[in-house]
């Protein structure tokens, strides 16, 4: 990878936002179908918001670099990761001692990365991550359930 492509025009930024929202929606579909609290809308909004914060940081750093040399869009990206951690811990805390929402919290963390990748113009990484995460969320559940059935009923 040569360099991070930062979308410059407002049209390119609008496409970044749209792609981030669509990819977040795709990842959230499985969570909605599984009946989880955080589904399509939550995932789409987290990805969209992450992309927006990256774009704002990128614009701010390019416009303010002469005045404030310390402006860094990567600091905003790091703050997104921390903020998503709070959302994820809230999901887990809502269920008490059960670990039902850990996968949803992990998915929200990944979809924030998808949004950040879109914000930095790294669309291939965002799309590949979406495909991998969708596979993990949907197919791995079937594999896990099959393993559980085999382990709980070893005679079959």
Please sum up the structure shown.
The protein is 76% helix and 0% strand. It has 156 residues and is mainly alpha-helical.
Write down the overall mean pLDDT. 77
Largest sheet: none
As for the number of domains, it is 1
Radius of gyration: 18 Å
Strand tally: 0
Runs in which pLDDT lies below 50 for 5 or more consecutive residues are 1-5
Helix content: over 70%
What is the element string, with H for helices and E for strands? HHHHH
Kindly, what is the distance between the CA atoms of the first and last residues, rounded to a whole number of angstroms?
A: 49 Å
Q: How large is the count of helical segments?
A: 5
Q: Which structural class best describes the helix and strand composition?
A: mainly alpha
- Inertia-based shape: elongated
Strand content: under 5%
Please describe the topology of this protein:
Layout: H1 10-33, H2 40-64, H3 73-94, H4 102-119, H5 123-152
Helix pairs in contact: 1-2, 1-4, 1-5, 2-3, 2-4, 3-4, 4-5
């Amino acid at each position: 990878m040569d360099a991070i492509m930062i979308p410059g025009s407002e049209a390119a930024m609008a496409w970044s936002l749209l792609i981030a929202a669509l990819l977040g929606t795709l990842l959230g579909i499985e969570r909605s179908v599984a009946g989880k609290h955080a589904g399509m809308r939550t995932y789409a909004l987290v990805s969209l918001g992450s992309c927006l914060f990256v774009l704002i940081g990128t614009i701010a750093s390019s416009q303010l670099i002469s005045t404030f040399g310390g402006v860094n869009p990567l600091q905003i990206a790091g703050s997104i990761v921390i903020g998503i951690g709070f959302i994820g811990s809230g999901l887990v805390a809502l269920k008490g001692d059960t670990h039902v929402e850990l996968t949803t919290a992990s998915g929200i963390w990944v979809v924030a990365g998808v949004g950040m990748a879109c914000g930095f113009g790294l669309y291939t990484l965002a799309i590949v991550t979406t495909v991998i995460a969708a596979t993990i969320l949907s197919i791995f559940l079937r594999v896990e359930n099959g393993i559980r059935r085999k382990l709980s009923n070893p005679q079959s």
